[in-house]
Amino acid sequence: MVMSKVNKVLAWVALLALLCTAIIIAAGIWFASAQAGECARLERWRVVILGVVALVVALAGFVGAYWNKRFLLRCYLLFMAALIAVLIALLVFASVVTHASGEYKVLGRGYHEYRLDGFSTWLRGYVSDDPARWEGIMSCLADSDTCKKLARQAGFVTADQFYQSSLSPLQSGCCKPPPECGFGYVSPTVWTNPTSAPVQDCGLWSNDPAQLCYQCDSCRAGLLATLRSQWHKVYVTLIVVTAALSILYVVAWTAYRNVSGKPIFGRYYKW
């Protein structure tokens, strides 16, 4: 079978679109697996599902171009336009809900602290609206190596060494009391309790490895900071992929429009 030049262009565009959809799927799988490692389940598989749908659309475009199936080509262009619109909407939504970080710096500390009220309302709802969900997250964190690894690190000999260390958001929020409490350092996960507790989270701290600060708002904030960091990596990937798909769509639309000579979405187009 001899393919026309236009069909060759459309086939190559569809193949490149397939590559873009594979990147979306890979980013979604990474995001889902990274969340599993941090005991979270926030929109884990939606990016993967979106990538699979895009893969099917791109395959339809390739088949339509290779075998000159105009119906499949029109469906490909229609659904690709819808997919790009969905990706743009997703990027706008993600940008809005992850804009605020809740991160702040404490003088003399090598790590950051996190405030729950510094995150968007939508993100705060994930860790605050459903007590049963947070119970499951706490149980997962207690069983994980997040704080156990910190406690096993022999390099933290003195308080000064600990304060200058590099902690992950989860370790900062869940494995030690908030700095406002004024607790005395004994070891990374053992602290002496002062006579007064100036903030609510102070009374929730426990030296019990199964409890620590897992019920604290600082722990919730640390989890959200981790999710935000993970999402930003996916966000950058999706921006690049969306830009690439948009360019490919313009090329495909132009090629199809030139060969058909009729509007792609014309109401009375005859197949």
Please characterize this protein's 3D structure:
The chain has about 270 residues and is mainly alpha-helical. The protein is about 60% helix and about 5% strand. The chain has nine helices and four strands. It has helices at about 5-35, 45-65, 70-95, 120-130, 130-145, 150, 160-165, 170-175, 215-260, and strands at about 105, 110-115, 185, 190. The strands form two sheets. It has a two-stranded antiparallel sheet. It is elongated and about 80 Å long. The two termini are about 20 Å apart. The model is unreliable at about 265-270 (pLDDT under 50).
Index terms:
single chain, 271 residues, mainly alpha, two-stranded antiparallel sheet, 9 helices, 4 strands, 60% helix, disordered C terminus
Secondary structure elements and pairings:
Layout: H1 5-37, H2 46-66, H3 70-97, E1 103-105, E2 112-114, H4 121-128, H5 131-143, H6 148-152, H7 159-163, H8 169-174, E3 184-187, E4 190-192, H9 217-260
Antiparallel strand pairs: 1-2, 3-4
Trace the largest sheet across and list its strands: 1-2
Main beta sheet, described? 2 strands, antiparallel
End-to-end C-alpha gap: 21 Å
Q: Element order, helices and strands?
A: HHHEEHHHHHEEH
Overall geometry comes to: elongated
Which range best describes the helical content: under 10%, 10-25%, 25-40%, 40-55%, 55-70% or over 70%?
55-70%
Mean pLDDT: 86
Number of helices: 9
What are the low-pLDDT stretches, counting only 5+ consecutive residues below 50?
Answer: 267-271
Number of strands: 4
Determine Rg (CA atoms, Å). 25 Å
Oligomeric status of the shown chains? Answer: single chain
Query: What percent strand?
Result: under 5%
SS-based class: mainly alpha
